[in-house]
Amino acid sequence: MEEKVLEILEEYCEEALTYDGDSMMEDGIIDSFTVINIVSELEEEFDIEIDAKYVVAENFKNKEAIIALVERLLEE
Amino acid sequence: MGEMFRRVVVIGYGKATGNILKYIEEQKTVYGYSLEFIEHESHALSVTKKICGEMGIPYANMPDKQELAGYLCDIREKTLIVSASNNFLFPAACVEKENITIINFHNALLPEYPGRNAPSWVIYMGEKETGITWHYVTAGIDEGNIIIQKKCAIGLEDKAFELTERLMDLACEGFEESFAAVMEERVETKPQKFAPGRRMYRSYEVPGEGVFELSDEPEAIYRLLRSVDYGKSAIFPPLRTVVDGVQAEVVRYRKIIPEKKKDEENAVYLPLGENHLLKIKYRHVI
Fold first, then answer.
1. Domains (ranges, CATH) in chain B?
2. Does B15 contact A31 at a Cβ distance shorter than 8 Å?
3. Does the beta-carbon distance from B45 to A35 stay under 8 Å?
4. What is the ipTM of this complex?
5. In degrees, to the nearest 5, what angle opens at C-alpha A17 toward C-alphas B44 and B279?
6. Residue B153's CB: how many other CB atoms inside 10 A?
7. Fold of the domain built from segment(s) A2-75
8. How far is A41 from chain B (nearest CA, A)?
9. N or C, which end of chain A is more exposed by having fewer CB within 10 Å?
């Protein structure tokens, strides 16, 4: 799963792979439009629904947060 | 030249607003105004507050329309209000004040597609080209004289959010090109010519009235799906259709090559052109 998430990030925001901070949105690594693309890809890849309540900066603060979000949703 | 603008107030949200704020802040040394930002609509992924913090721009959150209207009407200095990606309608009392000039960014080529959600409507209508308009604000919605317009093509695969992003970038370009003329009040404006029966697009209107039939042309369905696609922003309700005689709402969609077709529950596949399929994932609704 992790590998697939990283592949998606590589496609839409390569910088996210090497980013080691905890606020990609505020640090200008990704913007809201990139997040829409990433969410769409994650939903398709893992056949999950990412509700709007999860699409917040906290869940996209770095690659680890995105992986954790997908893990949570796959367990639901 | 008469009295200069002493104060600039920016109202809006999103990428364009953030970039415009940065640009106006940079130009402060040229014109000597004070700058402030008002957030009227908050968004989960907004970074404008952070930009204000970093650049020392006074920030206020004013979700209440009456409070915002009252605040603006109380302004006494000569002020330029920059409305960028902003859905607040300025009351006539504010628009008509002699010391206040308001400019607004509209995400279409006025006088076409006035009102809300223009990127959706141009995709839905199958337009080949759209653009942005900066105009002076008058009491009528999107009716003021044009300051600058910039055009862009609409791609055959463009989704509403993608087009919106491009238009925001164009809005920033147009703003930077015209800012000096606006500040120095030397804009050669162009009045809008309104066709009889000009349609105003309202926030409650949805392309295709939000429904389609699986027997419709797949290209038309795809266009409709793309036209309301703002990711998770609930700008429009989910599109509806009927699957196996039962009402269903679209969960997501995707143009795929046939090799990517999977046996999946609650998914229909329609032929799209010669080489693709339109996958529509749905859920039944009671």
1. 7-183 (3.40.50.170), 209-284 (no CATH)
2. yes
3. yes
4. 0.80
5. 65
6. 13
7. 1.10.1200
8. 10
9. C
